[in-house]
Amino acid sequence: MIPINYAQMLQLALPELIVTVAALIVLAIDLLFLRQYQTRVRFTIAAGLASIGCAAAILQLLLTPAQANVLDGMLVANPLTHLVQIALLVLTIFTLLLSADSTFTEHVGEFVLLILAATVGMMFLVGSQDIVIIFISLELLSLSLYILTAFDKRSARSSEAALKYFLFGGMSAAFLLFGFSLLYGLSNSTSLTYIASAIHGQSLTPLLVIAIVTTVIGLGFKVAAAPFHFWAPDVYQGAPVPSAAFIASGSKVASFFIFFQVMVIGFAGAEGSATWRHFTPGWVSVLAVVAVLSMVLGNLVAIVQSHVRRLLAYSAIAHAGYILLALLSHTQQSLGALIYYVVTYALATLGTFGVIAVVEKQTHSDRLSDFDGLSRRAPVLSFCMFIFLLSLAGIPPLAGFFGKFYLFVSVLAAPGSTGLLWPVVLAIAMSAVSLYYYLQVLKRMYVASPPAGTEKMQAPILSQFVIVLLAAAIVLLGCTPHLLLRWMMEAIQASGL
């Protein structure tokens, strides 16, 4: 029996505990003292208090011991997990601030509580290498997101999207749990490290193949990779804007990180190969097929979309394909590229949803035609949208360009990966396709004339400040990527991954 150091466990879980306490405080204050105030006021106060709680958790993460491992990976603390958790908390703060001007619900305390509960789930998710804790954390995250999707009770589309999200999520959870149960049966352990030791050197038995496929299905759903993406377009369009922004940003960071951890650590020794004309059975070849399907389907279907939110959903599917390329090479450099890519993608996506929220407030829709002449109605927001979309398209000198460049280089620089040139070439070709539909939005904003009789848009000061800050971060991280990259690579090397 391994002795449990409860003091150490409490110290490692203290950032999550701080966020949980902040959520309960926000709920109590909203229920007891703020019910008589306007919804905007309540949202502003709740978002401010929750942001303070997240900032306190960030401070605690900076003070927590850099290296710790409790119960064979049940709770793990190292510079890399701290870095990813800090990124998640920052994205949560931005989401909360963008929601401060919302009016879609009167249950403000409950909404903010669910945002913070999802954040706690994400923090535990990236801070564990145990399949039981990983599954529980994923379910805490998923259940929170299902409810957040349905939070606009006045919208039938929101309820429909939440139902689809829940049904597909339940099926994906069943696949993931089945895969994890097979891994436990093969290794008699729930630790990713011990699982890898047990299956290393084994041939690909039918049970191991089924475990690989079901795990990829379960985690592929979380990152909206094709063909497990069916929930994404409806959720992106039907959910309240803050909920959709959170699903498209913070949850993607946590899900991609744990996807890398599970496959690279847990399935070490069963990689196989996806090199040209030398496919070898293993999880790398499975992910290569998923990545290709995601890139092709996401980009081609995005071209015909008439709503910006659905366009972003199919764009997210395509980006999932790009990011999965980092798993094909599974090196320290590709892990750094994955984290840089998904963090900068999350920032750009958050900013884009922030602009969409302002447009929807005036037009009550997110059709492409609603963005006609936006540069004359809201010049600052239009310029920020210009930065976000070009970053998503991978245009220099923005963060999205460096993210793609570094990702592709990391794949080609991996030992023995010269045969992986084919998915990189395909990714570059699909990036060129993506430029078309991003430019369609920009054409509407800068070339088309605004509808007759429309007035200038008055964006809330706080929302405008957050959007400008996100745009500045995209430019800064594109021009000086070493600010984040150097910190990431030092954390990865110190963590021994």
UniProtKB/TrEMBL annotation:
InterPro entries: NADH-Q_OxRdtase_suN/2, ND/Mrp_TM. It comes from the Bacteria. Its EC number is 7.1.1.-. It is found in: Cell membrane; Endomembrane system; Membrane. NDH-1 is composed of 14 different subunits. Subunits NuoA, H, J, K, L, M, N constitute the membrane sector of the complex. NDH-1 shuttles electrons from NADH, via FMN and iron-sulfur (Fe-S) centers, to quinones in the respiratory chain. The immediate electron acceptor for the enzyme in this species is believed to be ubiquinone. Couples the redox reaction to proton translocation (for every two electrons transferred, four hydrogen ions are translocated across the cytoplasmic membrane), and thus conserves the redox energy in a proton gradient. This is NADH-quinone oxidoreductase subunit N.
